[in-house]
Structure formats: C-alpha cells, structure tokens
C-alpha cells in the first residue's frame, strides 16, 4: 500500500524517534515513507544526514522542529512506542509538540503508535488532549486501542508500520553473517537483547553466558537493535560487547545497517532470542523460531496476541528453549 495520505494536506512533517540508530524506529520510518510515497515529506531526525542517506528523504534536525511547523500543513507522529514509559524526554515532549502543531488549524495524525496504559499525570493529560484533537489515529495493537477507548477516543488497529518495509535480498543477510565472522554451516542463534531494565539485563547476561558455554556446537550472534548515541542503557552494542567479554564465542554485528538488511539477516538465522519488540516482529516475519524474553508491556502484549509467553531469564530455561528449536543438532551439555 503506497501513496496513502488520508487527505492530509501537504507538505507533511513526520516526527518520531528517528536518527537514534534504533533498527525498529528506522523500519517504522521506512514503512511510513513507503505508505506516503509521492507526498511532500520532511522527517525530523536527531541525525538528518544519516536519515537522508538511509531513506532518501529530506530531513531536518530536532532543534528546528518547531520553526518548521510554519512551512508544513500537516504533522504525522509516526510509529512505535513513542508514548511508552521507556521513551524518556522524547515521549514526554511529543504530546506537547502535537498540541502545538494543531495551532491554528494544522492537521495532526498519530500513525502506527503504541500507547501504554501507565502515563505520568501531566504526560497522560496532554496525550489525551492530543488524541481527542487528532485527525486520525492508527495503533499497532489491541492493547493501545483499548487504552484509547478508555479515554473515549476511537482508533484503527493496523500492523506495525515496519511490516510495509520490503526486506533486502537473502544474500544481504548472509553477507552480514559473514561480516560478523559467523560460521553459516552451523546452527546460528540471534541474540536481540537489551539492558534497558538493569535488573533483568543482569539476569539475562548470566543466562546467556551460561547457555553459550553449554552449547559449543551452536553459533551465537548478537544483533544490536538499538545503538542510542547518548544513553548507554539504550545502546545494545555496549551490552553485546560486555557479553562477548564474558563469553568470547559470541559474535557481534557491528556497524549501522539499513533495517531491511537486518530483516534479511533474520531470515538467515536458525532461531532468535528476542527481548526487543521489533526483534519479535522481524523473527515472526522471517519465519524464524522465537525464544521470547519480554522486558516491556508492548512485548508482552505482542506475545499474548500470538499465544506465546516469555521464558524465565535463566541459563536452564534458555538452554532448554534453544535445544527445543534445534532438535536435530547434537549438543554437549
């Protein structure tokens, strides 16, 4: 589905968590640009040069987001857990920005968003005001729809915007495996982990190290889904390197890659241990068996909708789950 704009007047300013080197957010942007193809678009980004290079779209820095409003007739707040508890300052400011954008008569649409039930008092009030004034709201899960309904606001549930992004060819994923030094002739388990929740991150780290040491016949590749430039706990690459220090057999995918290339990589995996939301989506889309370790409500909601539950972050549970995915492989224990 391309070129769909819902009658939003052009030019359209797109706002979201873009330019922070988060694979999921960049996949959302790729899907949104695919959907709005042919429209006059500008994207607000932390790193406009990176965003323009990756997506081929005009991009402006965050600091000019307010002044650019006078040059745009519509604003799309696009995709992801922008209104979740883990979003920090960005999540707190977006509702206020959306309300500002509505003045005097600019159209504001919320597209592909996830909304947590738990909001700060001020943030929740502003988000409810914005939702009631939005020209259109699309959410990516039933839980978000139900939150909005509790505020007497209707919305449309549609798949995550990343689902509109075409995958790169399989050869791209195989190339990334080779770049990371992975032996593709052996089973390859992707590790899509995060230490955002410090306590859970510590438990997951111990579980992964124990599991890797028990499975010498399996390749493990850490796929960082976020490389936040400012917040270490949101930089999965740092977590990956700390794990590799404890378990040197873990390979790490270095560098910043287009989300379509990362999606292609998922297709080359034998299975994936997924904490990150878009790791779940990518693995599901690629038809790769999932070992879920949910750290956030959005992950638990997705798992519930797919009749799956998160495993416990222990070496025993993780080892058993991976062995169940690879019944034909002889493993030392």
State the main characteristics.
alpha/beta; Rossmann fold; disordered C terminus; 333 residues; 12 helices
Explained architecture:
- The protein has 333 residues and is α/β, with parallel strands linked by helices.
- It has two domains: 12-164, 3-Layer(aba) Sandwich (Rossmann fold); 170-325, Glycogen Phosphorylase B (Rossmann fold), CATH 3.40.50.
- The chain has helices spanning 23-35, 48-55, 88-101, 121-133, 142-150, 170-179, 198-214, 236-246, 259-266, 277-286, 297-305, 315-325, and strands spanning 12-15, 41-45, 59-61, 74-83, 107-115, 136-139, 156-157, 188-192, 219-222, 251-252, 271-274, 290-292.
- The strands form two sheets. A seven-stranded parallel sheet has the order 3-2-1-4-5-6-7. The protein has a five-stranded parallel sheet with strand order 10-9-8-11-12, with helices on both faces.
- Helix 3 runs parallel beside helix 4 and helix 6 crosses helix 9 (259-266).
Radius of gyration: 20 Å
Termini separation comes to 48 Å
CATH top level label of the largest domain: Alpha Beta
How many domains comprise the coordinates?
Answer: 2
Class per helix and strand makeup: alpha/beta
Average pLDDT confidence is 91
Q: State which percent range the strand residues make up.
A: 15-25%
How many strand units?
Answer: 12
Number of helical elements: 12
The string of secondary-structure elements, in order, is EHEHEEHEHEHEHEHEHEHEHEHH
Biggest sheet, strands in spatial order? 3-2-1-4-5-6-7
| Helical amount | 25-40%
Gross geometry: globular
CATH topology heading of the largest domain:
Rossmann fold
Largest sheet: 7 strands, parallel
């Amino acid at each position: 589905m391309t070129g769909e704009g819902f009658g939003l007047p052009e030019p359209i300013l797109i706002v979201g968590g873009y330019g922070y080197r988060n694979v999921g957010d960049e996949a959302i942007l790729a899907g949104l640009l695919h959907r709005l193809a042919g429209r006059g678009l500008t994207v607000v980004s932390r790193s406009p040069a990176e965003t323009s290079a990756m997506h081929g779209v005009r991009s402006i820095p965050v600091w000019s987001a307010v002044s650019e409003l006078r040059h745009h007739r519509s604003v799309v707040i696009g995709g992801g857990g922008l209104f979740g508890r883990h979003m920090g300052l960005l999540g707190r400011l977006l509702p206020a920005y959306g309300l500002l954008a509505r003045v005097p008569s600019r159209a504001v649409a919320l597209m592909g968003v996830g909304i947590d039930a738990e909001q700060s008092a001020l943030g929740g009030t502003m988000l409810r005001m914005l939702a009631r004034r939005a020209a259109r709201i699309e959410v990516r899960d039933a839980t978000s729809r139900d939150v909005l309904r509790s505020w007497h606001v209707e919305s449309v549930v549609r798949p995550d915007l990343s689902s509109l992004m075409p995958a790169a060819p399989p050869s791209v994923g195989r190339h990334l495996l080779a770049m990371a030094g992975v032996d593709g002739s052996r089973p390859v388990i992707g590790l899509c982990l995060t230490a955002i929740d410090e306590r859970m991150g510590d438990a997951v780290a111990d579980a992964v190290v124990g599991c890797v040491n028990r499975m010498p016949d399996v390749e493990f590749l850490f796929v960082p889904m976020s490389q936040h430039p400012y917040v270490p706990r949101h930089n999965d690459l740092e977590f990956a390197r700390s794990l590799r220090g404890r378990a040197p057999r873990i390979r790490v995918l270095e560098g910043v890659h287009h989300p379509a290339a990362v999606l292609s990589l998922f297709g080359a995996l034998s299975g994936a241990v997924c904490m990150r939301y878009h790791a779940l989506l990518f693995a599901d889309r690629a038809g790769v068996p999932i070992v879920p370790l949910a750290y956030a409500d959005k992950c638990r909601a997705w798992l519930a909708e797919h009749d799956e539950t998160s495993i416990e972050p222990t070496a025993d549970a993780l080892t058993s789950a991976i062995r169940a995915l690879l019944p034909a492989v002889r493993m030392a224990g």
